[in-house]
Amino acid sequence: MDSLTVVIPVFNEAENIPPLTKRLSESLEGWAIEAEFLFVDDGSTDGTVAELRRARQKDPRIRIAHFRRNMGQTAAMAAGFRLARGRAVATLDGDLQNDPAEIPRLVKMLEEWDAVCGIRIHREDGWWRRVSSRIANGYRNWMTGDNILDTGCTLKVFRRECVERLELYTGLHRFLPTLLKMRGYRVTQVPVSHHPRRAGKTKYGTWDRLVKGLGDVQTVRWMRRNWIDFESVLELEDDLEDASLEPARERAPDRPAAAPWPRH
After folding, report:
1. Close Cβ partners of 58 (under 8 Å, ≥ 6 residues apart)
2. Where are the domains of the chain?
3. What kind of architecture, by CATH, is found in domain 3-226?
4. Per-residue pLDDT for 249 more than 50?
5. Cβ atoms < 10 Å from Cβ of 142
6. Sign of the dihedral through C-alpha 6, 9, 13, 14
7. Pairing of strands 115-120, 187-192
């Protein structure tokens, strides 16, 4: 059955849980694809988990996973990917700056792509946050040879096979498109809307995120330069019952084709 998991990392977002779960329900109401909403609580110390449990009583599509201590956004993403049951996986911020109503449009694009990444337009952030993002994105692309315009946009959708076995290290969730391209997956970018934060405060300081992100570029650059892509040159010789025959040489496929995405 066609299915979607929306992975939503949250940390001390108690005020945003009721409007977010309501918006999720409204946005995907009557959609042909079966959906589940997987919240991964990153060791919140406020009432986030309690609000999620209350929301689950109203909407059984909500699933809750939580860390006993704060592990960081990358860990929450990785846990969500591991637990996702949908054939498509979407990621979404827990602060309502991403619009869940965009998800069906992005999932539709998985008919042609393996991953679809949002580019925030008309960003509702302060000038320093916008400038720092522009610097970080430009530096990442320059160092990695990539062309990802907005690595900080959490709104993305993937075929599940892209992310279910992907190994992530702290901070590398910002490089998901690049990591997927390295593995031969088809990645595209599309504009998406962006909204101001309604409640609470951002949990990741702009300066700390910028410094950490610029350092992580070196790691990804090393990975990209040293990535072993043997599939394009690998040849497999099958065993033959008649040893007198000349062994047939079969060129290994570049990558198994992704299963066709059902059209509605």
Report:
1. 21
2. 3-226
3. Alpha-Beta Complex (3.90)
4. no
5. 11
6. positive
7. parallel
pTM of the model: 0.73
For tokens 């498109």, the residue is 177
Q: Which amino acid is at 205?
A: G
Pairing mode, if any, of strands 88-91 and 156-159? antiparallel
CA of 206: how far to CAs of 164, 199, 216, in Å?
A: 29, 18, 15
Q: In which residue are the tokens 């065993």 written? A: 239
CA distance 148 to 119: 9
d(CA 72, CA 10) in angstroms, rounded, equals 10
Handedness of CA 163, 168, 173, 177 (dihedral sign): negative
Reading the block at residue 159, the tokens are 């075929």
Spatial distance between the Cα atoms of 13 and 25, rounded to a whole number of angstroms: 18
Measure the CA–CA gap between 36 and 14, rounded to whole angstroms.
20
Name which of 140, 116, 134, 135 is nearest 219 in CA terms: 140
Q: What pLDDT digit, counting tens, does each position of 165-215 carry?
A: 888 877 778 888 888 988 889 999 999 986 766 665 665 544 455 555 555
Q: Output the DSSP codes for 13-72.
A: -GGGHHHHHHHHHHHTTT-SSEEEEEEEE-S-SSSHHHHHHHHHHH-TTEEEEE-SS---
For residue 34, what are its two tokens? 């079966």
Using one digit for the tens of pLDDT, what is the confidence trace for 124-174? 555 555 555 666 666 565 555 666 667 778 999 999 999 988 888 777 788
Average pLDDT, integer, range 100-117 = 95
**Distances in whole angstroms, Cα of residue 126 to Cα of each of 131, 196, 223:** 9, 10, 33
